[in-house]
Design brief:
The complex is a heterodimer of chains A (about 170) and B (about 600).
Chain A (H helix, E strand, L loop, with lengths): L1 H51 L1 E3 H12 L5 E11 L1 H9 L8 E6 H8 L5 E3 L5 E8 L4 H9 L11 E7 L6
Antiparallel strand pairs in A: 1-4, 2-3, 2-5, 5-6
Helix pairs in contact in A: 1-2, 1-5
Chain B lengths: L2 H57 L6 H22 L7 H4 L6 E4 L3 E10 L3 E7 L2 E6 L2 E3 L1 H9 L5 E6 L3 E2 L1 E4 L7 E5 L5 E8 L2 E8 L13 E12 L15 E12 L9 E2 L4 E4 L1 H4 L14 E4 L2 E4 L4 E9 L12 H20 L7 E2 L29 H28 L16 H8 L2 E12 L2 E11 L11 E5 L6 E2 L13 E5 L5 E9 L17 E9 L4 E2 L20 H17 L10
Parallel strand pairs in B: 23-27
Antiparallel strand pairs in B: 1-2, 1-20, 2-6, 2-7, 3-4, 4-5, 8-9, 8-19, 9-10, 10-11, 12-13, 12-18, 14-18, 15-18, 16-17, 20-21, 22-24, 25-26
Helix pairs in contact in B: 1-2, 6-9
The chains are: A alpha+beta (about 170), B alpha+beta (about 600).
Chain lengths: ~170, ~600
């Protein structure tokens, strides 16, 4: 009885050590590489938009494809903070010794994507706008699954691969 | 062997491998992260420098004069270095620490470019005087003779090796067709302006002008409006009539921003207008006028025609407007567009007549040999099929190629020379000029632009090597069609627009102004010093104390359109303006006017 229990425990241990541990380790490396790919693609995409001043459908699709190539699904959040100098101009109108205060209003995914799907296929920005992208995976990667098997991490924010980049737009897009 | 033993052996093999692998992947990830961080910061620093350049040149009346331009560019370089050294997240990095890794910075401007790169610099030789015996040089060690100077220049030990802003290089190409007596240099610019100098059919000629293929319909007598800070002054007008004698003769009533219509008789009579207005001033009012510079003169007396008269006092005075020349740099004649086309068409005719036979292959390199693969097109035969203002014309393509080769040659030379001498700045990296793509060249050659290179700095396990290109769209150095915004002078929605915006009304007159005119401007006025409660402060003599206060204004009261300027929407690009007669006219008029008033450094060659 005691002998067979030891054998069973040993088999379990051996299974964990021989299969699950290497699998976990390799799947975590896989996530690291996905993370790297996602981060580089995000920075490249954002910096390209910042220098050219426009988001084009081609660039956006290429970016989404790079993300998809990592084998995960992602939630991509784009935000354009549009610089509006008009309220500052109105202030300066009344009080001439005051520097006008500029205001930003935000445009998100749905508006940007509807512009990308229009015939022109571009969303133009202007110098001074702010553009930011944040991305995180929505599926469970293998390493997340394995980890959850041993110790559970749950909740909506339990993402493994994420990247964000933002900056000021440097030229007028049209 | 027992299964447990096998498991232990397996783990002993797998564990180090996975640990090493993870460590390796981590360093690789770190390296790439550092590289992308550097690239982003390099771009940001370049953008900061371009912003500094725009800010400095837009506020500087003399910014296009070359000495002043050098100062503005050196300031931009300093901004770049500061921004880079603070943002790069290298502890203790100062601009001197980073400079060795910057092999070159290029500024492409309207008719030429600057290269900022390390070079031998003979700073201790500061003043040259040339006389019959050759030249002598005043140095910190006294006067040096020609021989001593030559010895000094040939000895690199006397020179410092550091980053300097090299002399301005014009976009020039020399053309010497064989078997003709023509040998000319053509200085190109970002638009259709050229300067020609050299021998044409044996005769030495210098001429400059714009090349146009046709004369579009333009508004020959525009009515332009602008708001400027205008000083209203009180003026004794006793025997002086309408001219200003000295500033102490005038009393300033107020400084206010006023709408001014630019007409042909704008700003005559010593910049005084509206002289017919009279104003009643009582003695007690005088103290309450802030910024009355010559207040003490109000009580002094003067002699006019031998009769003692109070200079200022209670009574009726004439007032006038005085427009500060500082803010009046925007003056332009109402028929500028017409003058532009008159001169351009005359120049184009002369140009085609005299240089029309020159082929692209006649271009000569600085070393006297011909460029390869230049083609046999007659580039200077200007016609509607060879329109210098179209980027697809033979002229434009040749110009683009010529400018590109010039920048490429000089830049790769500067970087290669640094590569050979880089020990002087304690680096041994093999600096090389990267190949810029054609789309990048398009950006460089259509705008005022800054290209920065950063190479040789350690980034994780690799050596960093990248460059950044940032174009400037709001500057005084160059006006392009995109940099003009349009307003309806009557009717309309009181906003400024792009030409293709559906909210710009074609049924009303349209006038275009440069984008820089819609930016906030500032001026200074004298005002009472006030304490925190707003009460007037007195100086030690008990007199009111004054200070200069900066105030802000806009030259045009229109606000940015929300459909085309602030945000980009379909409505903002809905109109095909090239097929709209009214808009096309506004476009050609505004562009011609802005080009006409635009200051060109080498226009004097045309005399």
């Amino acid at each position: 009885m005691g002998e067979s229990l030891t054998t069973i425990v040993a088999i379990f241990l051996a299974a964990i050590l021989m299969f699950i541990f290497p699998l976990m380790s390799i799947s975590e490396r896989n996530d690291d590489i996905a993370q790297l790919g996602v981060q580089t693609a995000t920075i490249e995409f954002v910096d390209n938009v910042r220098t050219t001043g426009k988001i084009t459908q081609d660039d956006y699709n290429a970016y989404i494809q790079t993300l998809a190539a990592t084998g995960n699904t992602y939630d991509v959040n784009m935000e354009v903070k549009v610089l509006d100098e008009n309220p500052g101009k109105k202030t300066t109108w009344a009080v001439t010794d005051k520097i006008g205060e500029n205001i930003y209003y935000s445009v998100y995914n749905s508006q940007i994507e509807s512009a990308l799907n229009s015939p022109s296929g571009t969303y133009s920005l202007k110098e001074g706008d702010l553009f930011s992208v944040s991305v995180k995976n929505t599926n469970r990667t293998i390493s997340q699954m394995l980890r959850n098997f041993f110790y559970t991490i749950s909740g909506n924010d339990a993402y493994q691969v994420s990247a964000q980049h933002a900056g000021v737009v440097m030229s007028n897009g049209n | 062997m027992k299964i447990q033993n096998m498991a232990i052996i397996l783990v002993a093999i797998i564990l180090p491998i996975t640990l090493l692998l993870s460590a390796y992947t981590k360093t690789q990830i770190d390296t790439i992260n550092v590289q992308t961080l550097y690239s982003t910061k390099l771009r940001d620093a370049t953008y900061d420098a371009v912003s500094a350049f725009q800010l400095n040149t837009n506020k500087n009346e003399y910014s296009t004069v070359s000495d002043s331009m050098r100062r503005d560019i050196e300031a931009a370089v300093q901004t770049f270095m500061n921004s880079l050294s603070t943002n790069l997240e290298i502890p203790g990095a100062t601009d001197n620490y980073l400079k060795p890794y910057i092999p070159a910075i290029v500024f492409t401007l309207y008719d030429g470019y600057y290269i900022y790169s390390p070079s031998y610099n003979y700073t201790q030789l500061n003043e040259t005087t040339e006389d019959n015996d050759g030249f002598t040089i005043e140095s910190s060690e006294g006067t040096l003779t020609t021989d001593e100077v030559l010895k000094r220049y040939s000895n690199k030990g006397n020179a410092q090796y550091n980053h300097i802003l090299k002399p301005y290089i014009y976009y020039t190409v020399r053309y010497a067709p064989e078997n003709t007596n023509t040998d000319v240099v053509v200085n190109y610019s970002l638009d259709n302006y050229v300067v020609v100098y050299g021998k044409i059919k044996g005769e030495y000629v210098t001429r400059a002008g714009y090349l146009v293929a046709s004369r579009p319909e333009i508004n020959e007598n525009e009515e332009l409006h602008k708001r400027l800070p205008v000083t209203t002054i009180v003026f004794p007008d006793k025997g002086y009539n309408h001219s200003l004698i000295s500033e102490s003769d005038i009393g300033i009533l107020s400084v206010a921003v006023q709408d001014i219509a630019v007409t042909n008789d704008y700003l005559l009579q010593d910049r005084l207008t509206n002289m017919n207005q009279t104003v009643q001033i009582k003695k007690q009012d005088i103290d309450s006028i802030p910024g009355l510079k010559s207040k003490s003169l109000y009580y002094s007396e003067q002699y006019i025609n031998g009769v003692k008269e109070p200079r200022y006092g209670e009574g009726t005075y004439k007032t006038g407007w005085y427009i500060d020349p500082q803010s009046d740099q925007y003056y332009v004649e109402p028929d500028s567009a017409k003058q532009y086309y008159d001169q351009a068409i005359e120049f184009t005719e002369w140009f085609t007549q005299n240089l029309g036979e020159i082929k692209a292959s006649d271009a000569i390199k600085p070393d006297g040999t011909h460029y390869e693969n230049m083609g046999d097109e007659k580039i200077f035969d200007i016609s509607k099929s060879n329109d210098p203002e179209s980027t697809k014309s033979v002229f434009s393509e040749h110009k683009r190629e010529a400018i590109k080769r010039s920048i490429q040659d000089n830049l790769s030379q500067a970087i290669a020379s640094y590569s050979q001498n880089s020990e002087a700045l304690d680096t041994t990296y093999n600096f090389k000029m990267p190949i810029l793509s054609e789309t990048e060249w398009d950006r460089v050659l259509t705008n005022v632009c800054m290209i920065t290179f950063m190479q040789g700095i350690q980034a994780g396990t690799k050596i960093y090597n990248d460059y950044a290109i940032v174009t400037s769209t709001k500057n005084k150095e160059y006006v392009s069609g995109d940099s003009i915004y349009y307003i309806n002078t009557t009717g309309g929605d009181g906003k400024y627009h792009r030409l293709g915006c559906s909210h710009l009304d074609s049924n009303y007159p349209i006038v275009g102004y440069r984008n820089t005119e819609f930016d906030r401007k500032s001026y200074e006025v004298e005002d009472f010093k006030r304490d925190s409660n707003g009460n007037q402060m007195l100086d030690e003599n008990g007199q009111p104390d004054y200070q200069d206060v900066t105030q802000y204004y806009y030259m045009h009261e229109q606000q940015a359109c929300y459909y085309c300027m602030v945000n980009s929407t379909d409505e903002g690009t809905a109109v095909d303006w090239r097929n709209d007669k009214n808009r096309l006219k506004a476009y050609y008029t505004a562009l011609a006017r802005e080009k006409f008033k635009f200051y060109k450094t080498n226009a004097y060659l045309s005399d």
